Amino acid sequence: MKKTLLCLVLCLCFALPAFAESTPYQLPVDFSGGYKAPDENYTQDTYEDESLSVRMEKRDIDGVRYDIAWIKMASPTQLRTAVAGQPNEVVTKMPGSMSRALNAVVAINGEFYTQRKDGLIYRQGVPFRYDLNHRKDILVIDEAGDLHVFLANDSRTQEMMDFLQAGHAIVNAFTFGPALVKDGQFLPIPESYSVRDDGTARGLFDSCLPSPRMVVAQTGPLEYVFVEAEGRSAISKGVTTDQMGQFMVSLGVQTAYCVDGGNSCIMFFHGKYYDSTYKENEREISDIIYVCSAVPDGGK
Hints:
single chain; five-stranded antiparallel beta sheet; alpha+beta; 5 helices
């Protein structure tokens, strides 16, 4: 079954995503950035143009600072990823530099995929790896910009085959997790869950420890929310994985997935830190997730 899935993925991996509903705001599915967002379209906590609406929010709850980006887009091509080097090249860059170079309106850290050797990893329609680790949940972003989580269980391979045979394209794929919410339902983390190559059980190692967390989530068609729970600081103690999942459910998301947390957590808005991170704490990482304007006024 796993070989069948791999063959199917390999057959489809070079097919470019087909966007069923064309809009005037399509961006190329590649590693180029978005159009430069005019400064006058920003307020302190919002951004608005014909293709993109962003509302930033901070919430302080029970000693935890949550940084939230509410996002509505005109085209699925505006939800993008970027890497520091070439595919699978062990290169890192400051996420702020990547964010600004790509004209990101909002950007967050990715999964720091170069720290591991496994996973189903895609970026902007380009396949990097096909190693389906049975201990890890997978997040796939398809041609419509929809988020799909495939849980680390015995039925996952068939579910992914059905997904691909239904004609969906993989635009971005992540192997980190865990998945926190699926179909609007909270997913408690299994004790056997691990993001470590040595098989260390994350349920025992990490999920019970309050830490910084970063989550990408979907609330509806072309509507998303990025959420960072700050941690390890005087203003915010961090959260456990299950606490983060419960918070995401309270926001009304349909799908939510953890990317890298801890010292990798960082959120940018209008090219500046939106969280409490400052320059001395910014860590070089391998990849980011971001959204951008698709209005060409002013050019790229």
